[in-house]
Design goal:
The chain has 229 residues and is an alpha/beta fold. A hairpin with a 2-residue loop joins strand 6 and strand 7. It is globular.
Length: 229
């Protein structure tokens, strides 16, 4: 187990957390709408002050890698890279859509055959979405979807699906199926990153700090794979 700083800024809010041996020792969120450029640095400074005051030794920085807002991701990733360079730490990318699934998996009693479809709002009826099983194995990889009644029908015919994220609310009326369930007001948060970050760190799945780039909404389809070390 490790001490990890977690940074999430892929959507309109931002949050920062610190986990020590799998337990949260710091967690702060900001949903004021002031913008990640204003608030994220303050939260990160508070987290690092706590780490230093307790004599903890950071092992890595985990950062939400998108898809998400260009500005939010740019700020979060730049901050994470700076800390990694300054303190000689490893960088752990955490897929934002997979991160969205952690909270319901840990807090809800879902049936064995349940699938989760996290969605990030793009524009009009377009979302960026993926479908995962309860073990967070991808049933369908991330892609841009223009949502109508047929978009997820093949999956809904065989499984109950829980839709969540800031793109799911606008899709509620379009997805008319008895197996469709919606989780309201659930956004990606740094405090739920630690299970995914610990898993990646244990597997040695860390990113090259110099070359890592997040998945921006505007160019997600053309995004290149990250170089892992």
């Amino acid at each position: 187990m490790s001490v990890i700083l977690h940074i999430e800024s892929a959507t309109s809010g931002c949050s920062v957390a610190v986990s020590d041996e799998g337990q949260l020792v710091f967690n702060k969120e900001d949903h004021s709408g002031k913008g990640n450029a204003v608030t994220l640095g303050v939260l990160v400074d508070e987290a690092l002050s706590l780490v230093d005051s307790r004599g903890l030794k950071l092992d890595a920085v985990a950062v939400s890698e998108g898809p998400g807002s260009y500005t939010g991701l740019r700020i979060g990733v730049s901050m994470a890279k700076g800390i990694c360079y300054g303190r000689g730490l490893k960088l752990i990318p955490v897929p934002t859509l997979k991160l969205l699934c952690v909270q319901p998996l840990l807090s809800m009693d879902l049936p064995d055959d349940a699938l989760l479809c996290p969605m990030i709002d793009a524009r009009r009826m377009e979302v960026y979405a993926a479908i995962y099983d309860r073990a967070l194995n991808p049933v369908r990889e991330i892609q841009a979807d223009i949502v109508d009644s047929q978009t997820y029908k093949a999956f809904l015919d065989g499984h109950p699906i829980w839709f969540l994220g800031d793109g799911s609310a606008k899709c509620r009326e379009a997805i008319d199926h008895p197996n469709a369930h919606f989780i309201e007001d659930m956004n990606p948060q740094a405090r739920w990153m630690f299970p995914l970050a610990e898993q990646s760190l244990n597997r040695g799945e860390t990113a090259d700090v110099a070359y890592f780039e997040p998945y921006y909404l505007k160019d997600f389809v053309a995004a290149k794979p990250k170089k892992l070390i």
